[in-house]
Write a structure and sequence with these properties.
282 residues, alpha+beta, four-stranded antiparallel beta sheet, 5 helices, globular, C1-like_sf, DC1
Length: 282
């Protein structure tokens, strides 16, 4: 899959750095960490699972930043722009201007790091999460022996394949930007992020339970002469990993959406990726 973008947002200048220092933000150096289990970014306060920068000091609380948020704070003095808002200049802020403020891309509340365009006579300003500012605009993918494109669109052309809506709330406020396939299927950025992070969290939770049970079983076997206990085992682990979803997304589309929103799926463990694909399509 070609993960190139019409505007090189996601290939930040820090993607080759193993360690970074963010003065005034965190006292310790942060280490580059590949994609994996879901986490909550201490910068923008949004969830993520892609590449991140984490503090590994033993006595630290485990400070973590999205790669995009780390890049934003390292280059905080540099203004940013976005193709959807031509001529507008966005400045980096550690906190939003007033509350509540909502990201003009995903429509989720802004609680931390944000790119802000000052208010004018026409509006109260624009806000974009660092990750939303960096969303790829085009992702090419191969399907049915044809090269197709996943395109980021500001105006939702049709109902989202996940939430089945174009808008939400009684006031009709837009759900936010969406990705549209060459075949016209639409997925809100916010909907996909929520669904994917929930399923990935289920996968890692299930994995922890399995490991814990294996360790427990090994302890019992090592400390008794009984060996395996006959009969039924403990009740099956209750997890939404085993539950079927009503929505099905073709693996190639799933991978393209992941690449556009979170980064290269190759960086995610193969086992985890295969499990997530299964979760979306069983």
């Amino acid at each position: 899959m070609d993960s190139s973008s019409s505007s090189s947002h996601r290939g930040s200048s820090i993607n080759e750095e193993k360690h970074i220092v963010v003065p005034g933000i965190h006292e310790h150096a942060l280490m580059s960490t590949p994609a994996g289990a879901p986490y909550s970014c201490d910068g923008c306060k949004e969830g993520g699972c892609g590449r991140s920068y984490r503090c590994e000091e033993k006595n630290c609380s485990g400070y973590v930043l999205h790669e995009e948020c780390a890049s934003a704070v390292l280059h905080r003095e540099n203004p940013e722009s976005h193709p959807f808002f031509k001529g507008e200049v966005f400045a980096f802020l550690e906190k939003p201007i007033g509350h509540p403020r909502f990201c003009d891309a995903c429509r989720m509340e802004v609680k931390g790091f944000v790119y802000y365009r000052e208010e004018t006579k026409k509006d109260t300003g624009l806000d974009l999460h660092p990750c939303c500012l960096k969303l790829r605009h085009n992702i090419s993918y191969e399907e049915s022996i044809a090269t197709k494109t996943l395109t980021l669109q500001q105006n939702v052309p049709k109902k989202c394949g996940l939430c089945k809506r174009k808008k939400f709330g009684d006031d009709g406020e837009p759900k936010g930007w969406s990705y549209v396939t060459s075949d016209g299927d639409c997925y809100h950025v916010s909907c996909f992020k929520k669904w994917f992070l929930e399923k990935l969290s289920d996968y890692f939770s299930e994995k922890k339970v399995v490991v814990s049970k294996m360790q427990s079983n090994n302890t019992v076997e090592n400390n008794t002469k009984v060996g395996k206990v006959k009969g039924r085992s403990n009740s099956k682990v209750s997890s939404s990993v085993a539950k079927k979803m009503a929505v099905k997304i073709a693996p190639v589309i799933l991978k393209a959406l992941f690449a556009a929103i979170f980064g290269d799926p190759v960086s995610l463990a193969v086992a985890a990726w295969e499990a997530i694909v299964t979760l979306f399509n069983n």
